[in-house]
Amino acid sequence: MPVAGWPAVTMTVLPLMFGLCQGRWEMRAGLYTRAQMLSPTKIWHQIVVYPLLTYLVGSALLRGVTSGDEIPLRWLARAAMMGGLLFWAVADAYDRRHPRPGHPPYDWRRLRSLASMDAMVRASARQPCSRASRESSTKDANIRS
What we know:
72% of the residues lie in helices and 3% in strands. It is an all-alpha fold and 145 residues long. The protein has one domain (6-113). It has a two-stranded antiparallel sheet. Helix 1 (6-28) packs antiparallel against helix 3 (40-66). The N and C termini lie far apart (80 Å).
């Protein structure tokens, strides 16, 4: 039986508010650009995944820990649930200290990620220069010295 009423609303609204505040903080701290914050994957995580997973995992944890059934090895089930929660908290703390933005900037006008454009710019920077541009840069270096 799922959790309902005010606990369900709390387990949905608080993570939604957290996701929005966290997104704002990440942008102000320079972890993400505006284009990255508005990417579909970032919006999905901040507005859908946080509230949904918190409700599903939180309600299962709440029901499991507060169940009144006297089953054998009840303490083992509770320990496993609390261990999972502790593991998640440690992984979250580690990820906050080692950020790696994985949401590529998104161009909503073209409905595609800007990462492909970044790859094209990087690829063009690695192409060898033409003979004329190499000679002009050599001449510039000779003039400066």
